Amino acid sequence: MIVVMDLHSTEEQIKKVEERLEELGFSSHLIRGVEKIVIGAVGGNREAARERLELLPGVEKVVPVMAPYKIVSREYQEHGSIVKVGELSIGGEEIAVIAGPCAVESRETLLSAAQAVARSGARFLRGGAFKPRTSPYSFQGMREEGLEILAWAREKTGLKIVTEVINPQDVELVASYADILQIGARNMQNFALLKEVGRQEKPVLLKRGMSATIEEWLMAAEYIASSGNSNIILCERGIRTFETYTRNTLDVSAVPLVKQLSHLPVLVDPSHSSGNWKLVAPLALAGLAAGADGLMIEVHPNPASALSDGPQSLTPAHFHELMQKLAPLAQLMGRSLRQEALVS
Amino acid sequence: MIVVMDLHSTEEQIKKVEERLEELGFSSHLIRGVEKIVIGAVGGNREAARERLELLPGVEKVVPVMAPYKIVSREYQEHGSIVKVGELSIGGEEIAVIAGPCAVESRETLLSAAQAVARSGARFLRGGAFKPRTSPYSFQGMREEGLEILAWAREKTGLKIVTEVINPQDVELVASYADILQIGARNMQNFALLKEVGRQEKPVLLKRGMSATIEEWLMAAEYIASSGNSNIILCERGIRTFETYTRNTLDVSAVPLVKQLSHLPVLVDPSHSSGNWKLVAPLALAGLAAGADGLMIEVHPNPASALSDGPQSLTPAHFHELMQKLAPLAQLMGRSLRQEALVS
Amino acid sequence: MIVVMDLHSTEEQIKKVEERLEELGFSSHLIRGVEKIVIGAVGGNREAARERLELLPGVEKVVPVMAPYKIVSREYQEHGSIVKVGELSIGGEEIAVIAGPCAVESRETLLSAAQAVARSGARFLRGGAFKPRTSPYSFQGMREEGLEILAWAREKTGLKIVTEVINPQDVELVASYADILQIGARNMQNFALLKEVGRQEKPVLLKRGMSATIEEWLMAAEYIASSGNSNIILCERGIRTFETYTRNTLDVSAVPLVKQLSHLPVLVDPSHSSGNWKLVAPLALAGLAAGADGLMIEVHPNPASALSDGPQSLTPAHFHELMQKLAPLAQLMGRSLRQEALVS
Amino acid sequence: MIVVMDLHSTEEQIKKVEERLEELGFSSHLIRGVEKIVIGAVGGNREAARERLELLPGVEKVVPVMAPYKIVSREYQEHGSIVKVGELSIGGEEIAVIAGPCAVESRETLLSAAQAVARSGARFLRGGAFKPRTSPYSFQGMREEGLEILAWAREKTGLKIVTEVINPQDVELVASYADILQIGARNMQNFALLKEVGRQEKPVLLKRGMSATIEEWLMAAEYIASSGNSNIILCERGIRTFETYTRNTLDVSAVPLVKQLSHLPVLVDPSHSSGNWKLVAPLALAGLAAGADGLMIEVHPNPASALSDGPQSLTPAHFHELMQKLAPLAQLMGRSLRQEALVS
Fold first, then answer.
1. Tens digits of per-residue pLDDT, A318-339?
2. Most exposed of B286, B303, C284, D324 (fewest Cβ within 10 Å)?
3. Closest residue to C55, CB basis, from D56, D307, D311
4. Could you tell me if C116 and C56 lie in one domain?
5. Could you give phi then psi for residue D292, rounded to 5 degrees?
6. Do D297 and D261 reside in the same domain of the chain?
7. What single DSSP character describes residue C130?
8. Model ipTM?
9. What is the pLDDT of residues C234-243, one digit of tens each?
10. What's this model's pTM, rounded to 2 decimal places?
C-alpha cells in the first residue's frame, strides 16, 4: 500500500500516518520527493486500512498494491482449474458447450431443444426454472416443475443440466436437481446468495454483472470460494455501455484478462451479449478465438414462440451449423469439441 | 406498438405479421412509405408481443409506444405520492433528511451519531445492520444485534430508522424493527427480495442500481407495487460511468425526470454518489435545487475510524453546517427543512 | 512514481528497473513487503517514464503520483482565476449567463433572441456560425455571414458574443469577431485547434468532451495554456452514459471537483446535458447550487422552427422565469446575478 | 417517422401535427389506440423534421424509422466494397494486415520495424508523423520529416504506408506521401477534417471514436462519402467503458454489426483496444473470427524504448508468432493471409 501525502502536509501529519500504519500492523518507509512525499507500507492488515488512512489530515490518496481477491487468483494457484461435473469437466482440453432455451416452458419444448443440442454435440443443457425478469408482468418461470422437467430431460438425453437460482432459500432445492447452479448477472453481487451456493458442493456458473468490473467479478467468485466451494466457472455475458445497437457489449478482452488474473475457467455467452441471434455465431467464434473454455448459447426449437429471449435464440439448424464452424476453430486453439452424439 | 418492415419484405410476410398481431389481440394499420412499410398496432396484449414479432421474417424492428411500468407511472396517478412514516411523511412539503453512519458499529457510536443528526434537524436515522460488501473479508454487519441497537437509538432520539435488507428471508425480521426498509443499489434487480418487501406494509426506500436505466428502476418499483405495497421512495445514488475521480456519477437529471414519469417521491444520496465527503455538500445542494424530496447522507462521529465508508462520511460539525445551507435553499424551492431539534 | 514488481521478479530484474530509473533522472527507494516489492521513484523526468518502465521484465505496474496537468492546476495557482472579457469577467462574484440560440439563422431571429436574453439579465450571447453536426445533410451554419450578424447583434444589445470555432484555419477569423471563442465537446481533443486558440489572446470556453475524463479535460486546457493563453473557461455539458432518457448525463460532481483540482472558472450547460427543455431549469439550478461560476443556456424565440437543437431550447418567457429563480439562489451561494437590463 | 401523441392530447393538437407534417412534405396516417394516438408519416423531408415535430404541443415523442446514413449503408449497395490501394485491396479475399510502430521515431527504427513486419507477411506499414497526444508535453511527432521517412521505408520494403492526418490544412501534404490516410479516434467527429479527406482521392481509414455509437461512426463515414470519396475503411479500436483493467473495451460485436449495416470493409485494432501487448494476440484472433477484413497492429523493434505506446506494442518475434496463428484462422474463415515475404 502506498500513501501519497498532500503537497502541503506537515511533519506532524506525516508522523500521524506513520503511527496509524504501525497500529494496523504495517511497517512504513518514507520517500521524500521534490514535490510529493509518499509512504510505502507493507505487511499489515489491509482490510479497511485504505479507508482509515485516506481520512487522516494531509493524506491525498492511498494506492493499493495487491489485488483484493486471493483464493481465486492466479498467484494463489498457478495452473488452471478444471471443474468436474460428474464424468465431464470444464476448463480442460474439451470446449464445454452449454445450450438450450432461455426458460423451461414445457416438457415437449425442452426435450425437443435438448435432443437437438445433444445431437449437434453439446454436453450441457441450459434452461431457467426461476427467471429474473425486468418486468413483474413477464413470465417468471415454472419453478420446481421446471426443475423436474430438466431432470427428466437429463435422463432422456444424458446432458448435464445448468439452471439458475435466484433466492438463497431455493439453493438446496435447485442443487438437488441441477448439475451446475447458475448465478445470473443481476445477482452477481447478491452476497447472501453467493454465500449460500458457496456452502454446497455443486459447481457454480457465475455470470459477470452487467456493470461489474473484472475485479468485482473476481471478488464475487471469492465470496463463493471463501464460503467453501471452489468449483466455480466464470461466464462473460456482455457489459452495459452507451452503444444501443446491441443489448450489451461483449467484453471479449475479459477472457484473456481473467485467464491471466485467475485460475478459474471462463465461458462466453454470445446470446445475452448481443440480444440478437444474427450476432451469436460471430461472437461465439470470437469468444473461442480469444481463449474461452466454453460457450453458453440459447437454442429454442421455435424462437418466434419462445416465452422469453426469442430474438437472441438460435434455431436447432443454426446451432448445428455453428457447431460445425466451432469444431475446427477449437482444434486450431489446441482444444477439442464434440460434434455429433447419439441421443437415446 | 409499431412494427417496421424490412426494405425487401414481401406481401406474404406483411400478411403474416398482420395475422400474428390479430392473434395477440391487436388491431393493425398498414402504412406504405416510399422506402419502408410500417404497421401500427393497438389494443393487444403487449407482454412478449415485441419479442414474438421481431423474429417474424421481414420484420426489421418493433418500437414500443407505451412505457412498461404502470402503477408507479405519473399517467396512473397525476398527483405526487406522499409516503407516510408514522406521523412523518416523505414527498410532502417538508424535505426529508435521513442521516447516520454507513453501518451500525456499536451502541455508543450509533447513539452519538443519532443525537448529533437529530440535533441538526434530521428526522430519520440510517445505519446498516446487514451490509452488502464487495469483499467477503470486509465487515458484514452486526445483523439482529444491529437492528436492536437501531431500535434503542430510535427510543432515545425519536428518529425514525431506515435500514437495509439484503435477503428475502430477513424481510420479516427487519420489518419488525425498521420504520423504512432499504433496498440497496446492488439488489435493485433482486426480484425475490422486491416481491418480499412488496408483500409487507412498511415503506420501502429503493435505491437505483449503479447501472440501472431509469426505466429499469421504475420497473423495480413496479415489482414492489404490483406485490401490494405502494409506499415506495426512490433514491438516486450515482451511476457507473467511465469517470474515475468520483466513485459514481450522480445523475442529477434523474430527479426531475423521475418526477415527470412517476408519482413517487425521490431522494438524493450525495455520499454514495461521490465516495468523497468533500463533494457531499455541493451535491446535496444540487440535488435539492433539482427538485429532490429529500437527502440521504452518511454522518459518523469519527469518520477516520468507521468500519466502512469513512471517506464519504461527514462529521457531525460538517453535517450541521450543511443543514444550515440547505434550509434557505429548501425555502427557495417552496419546501421546508427542520433545522434544530430538542433531543432527549 | 511507484513501480510495483511482480510476485516472482528476480533480483536482476529489480536491479534493471533501478538502473533505468537512474537513467531517467529518478532517485529510487526499494521497499520489500511480504508479498510484493515496490520501488518509489522521485525527481526524474516523468514524460514517457511510465511506459518505458512498464515493459521491463518483472514490472507489474507503474502508479503515477503526480497529476499530469501543471499550469491549470490548483497547486500551481491557489486562488481562483477571473477571466476578463472586456469590462466583464467570469469567475468573479457575478454569475455569468451566456444565452442565445444554438445557431445563427438570420438577422431577425438572432436579434430577437439577443434582446430577449439581455432583457432578462444575460450579459453574453451565444450563437453558432460554424456548426459541427452529426449528419452531413444537416444545416452547417452561416459561416462568416453568421459572425457578422453576431457582431451586429452585439452592437445593438451590448452583449458579449461567444461562438464556436471548429477549424484551426478559422481561428483568426472567428477571433476577429468573437469576445469568447468556444471549443465544442467534439473538438476537446482536436489538439491542432487547441494549440491555435492558445496562440491568440481572446478567452476560450472549453467544453468537456462527451467521453472525456476530468483529467483529459484539464489536459486539453493545459494544451491551450501551454501555448500561451491562460484565459480559459471550462464548461461541463454532460457525459455519455448508458442512460437513454437524456441525451447526455450532466456530471454535476465535476463542478466542485474541478474547483478543487484547478483554478479555472467552470460553467454548466444544462441544455446540451439533457437535450430536453423541460430539464433545463432544474439542471441550471443544480449547477449553480453545486458551485458553478455561470451557465450556458439555449434560448430561441421560436424553438419549434429552430434549425437545430429546438427541443432543448427555452422560449424567452421560460428563460425569463428561470432567471428569476436563479437570482435568489445566486445570492444564497454568496454570488450575484443581474436580473434585468435596459436594451437599446 | 412515427409521431406518438400524449395521453391527453387534444383534437386540435393532433390537427396541428398533421398540418405540420403536410408542410414538411409527409403524408400522415392516424392510428387511434385505447391509450395512445400515433401518427405514421411517410415520404417527406426528414432533415430537422424530428426536432420540429417534437416541440409541438401534445407530442410525446418522434420515432425515426430510417437510418440516417445513406451512401455507406448496405441498403444503398448490397455487395461489400473492396477498397483498392494501388495493386492491393482491402475488403476482398485477402486479410489486410497493417503493422508498425505507433510513431515514426527515426529512419533506423522505422526501417527495422518495416522489414520485420514485411518479412512476417504484412503488406501495410503504419507509423504516425503527426501525433495527437493527450499531454502537450508528450512527443508530438516528426511531422513532414516523418512522412519522408515513411516514403523511404516504402521504397525499401514495398509496403503501402498508412499514416494519420490531424489538421485539415495538412491533408494535401499527407496525401502526397501516404497510400492510406488515417483519421484517428479523437478526430472521428472533426467534421472539417472529414470533409477535407473526402475531397481527395486516397483511401481513408476511419477509426471509431472512443465514445462513438455505431450510428455516429457510420455518419462520420457518410461525411467523407458525401464529400466525394467512397474509398473508406472502418476500424474498430475499442470504446470507453467503466472497465479499467484495459485501456478501452474492444467492441467485437461492432464487426458483424457494421457488416450488416454497411458495405464498407472493417478492420480491428487490438493494440489500442487493450493498451496491453499481452492481450493483442487473443484480440487479433477474436477480431478475425468475428469477421474482420483485416487488422491494425502496433509493432516496435524495441517496445521498452518506444516514444509512445510501448506497452501495447508487439516485438517483431511476437508479431511473427501471431501471424502464424492468424493464417490458418483466415483460411477457416474462407479468407487468406500472406505469411512470408521477400524483402529487398
1. 999 999 999 999 999 999 998 7
2. D324
3. D311
4. no
5. -65, 150
6. yes
7. S
8. 0.92
9. 999 999 999 9
10. 0.92
